[in-house]
Amino acid sequence: MLFIGLPKSVERCICGASSGASVARPVAGRRVCPPVALLVSHPGAIMTQKELGEGMIETLPDGPLDIVGDVHGELDALLALLAVAGYDEQGRHPDGRHLVFLGDLVDRGPDSPGVVRLVQRLIDGGRASCILGNHELNLLRGERKAGNDWFWNENTAHDRRYHPWNWADPAAGPEMLAFFERLPLALVRSDLRIVHAAWHEPSMVALSALPTGGDFGELFTRLDDDADRLLESRGVVAQAKHEKATWRHHFADPEVDMPMLHAVGQLDEDRQMLNPVRVLTSGVERRAAQPFFASGQWRFAERVRWWDDYTDDVPVVVGHYWRQFLPLDRKALGKGDPDLFDGVSPRAWLGPRGRVFCVDFSVGGRWQERKSPDTAPRSRLGLLRWPEKTLVLDTGEMVGTVGRGSAPRAGRTAPARCRAWLPAGAAGPRSRPRSDGQLPLPLHVPPGPLPRPAAVLRW
Ligand SMILES: [Mn+2]
Fold this sequence. Notes:
Elements (H helix, E strand, L loop, with lengths): L25 E2 L2 E2 L2 H8 L15 E3 L5 E4 L6 H10 L13 E4 L10 H13 L3 E3 L3 H7 L8 H4 L20 H9 L4 E4 L2 E4 L5 H8 L7 H18 L2 H10 L16 H12 L2 H7 L2 E10 L2 E7 L12 E3 L37 E3 L7 H4 L12 E5 L3 E4 L4 E3 L52 H4 L3
Parallel strand pairs: 3-7, 4-5, 5-6, 8-11, 11-12
Antiparallel strand pairs: 1-2, 4-13, 7-8, 9-10, 13-14, 14-15
Helix pairs in contact: 7-11, 9-10
The structure holds manganese (II) ion.
GO molecular function: phosphatase activity
GO cellular component, one term: cytoplasm
Pfam families: Metallophos
């Protein structure tokens, strides 16, 4: 088991939920609050003799890294990015760089099976590492979610909007799931932490207190079941059901004047935060102040900027959150929740000490951009160079990041804020005025047409 930089004990409720429970009894050497003590000591949580830490958190190799954001089946963008970044057909880099994939390789885009095959081949060749994203986890759990019918082959009406796409070979399904099963939840070394959505110390501690088998999908389901039992015993489920009763026929109607359902919001927050695998792969959520409509239904709990509470020395790199390299119409992408990056430069390190970076630039929405072939895509697939801290994008742009390592200042919650950093319709970062005065602007933007992906790399 490997936990770098974790404290021996915590002085607050490690579930992180807003229940306000006090620190109570030790479990597996950690001090945890009563609900989590109940959760981790529940017989249903014990699966096999294997320790959870084993295979969940792995060590990054030494040397320079190229950390690639969520690919979401966009194979051409990935091939273009690798070519731009200087990788050869075998995934070798002249400077010995190592690729790290942040998870969410699949769904929505035109060639999820192709992306998985490529990344698997890079990993088998020792050229790359990859962590588990929530989209891979959905497949491991057997969940049918928007954009993942390429795997299930059920030709669902909802997913026809993503066609044409390459379907998974049903015979290759088990092998693909076995590949996802081998992916760790986090990768660490002394100068870096890599996780798909959130580095949330209480969840890390909770994971370390749990015994498990090697099956993430099964673990996830058991953690959910345990959380449900706990919340039922506390009456939260009954309260939420009562609240929902009046509105149950209106949850998919964006026009209805939906009131805030507080118990439903609390239940959603608790279900998210009591499952540490959920927190690491899909982030920290809290009861919302107001209901909002997103991805086809009313919601009462929202994602929060967990990085605003991250004050550790070791930087964290994540994907998952739909950052906008150029301003995008979030509503058109089905995202009705508040934009966590509102007013923050897409090149900015996040949090009070500028120690967190998100490398997801919304290429998961490119399937929709492709429907307007005359318009250049505004989404990007990007990689973050470490330790250089520069961004390389599939379009050939290379830009610096800003705001890392700034000292904490009173009253300053997010570094490198710059409102409306690019007006809608503006050209790329070349035209951007330097507003932060801290780090260099674009290092290099190649002239001429964009690189042709498939012609450069063949796999
Ligand atoms: Mn994700």
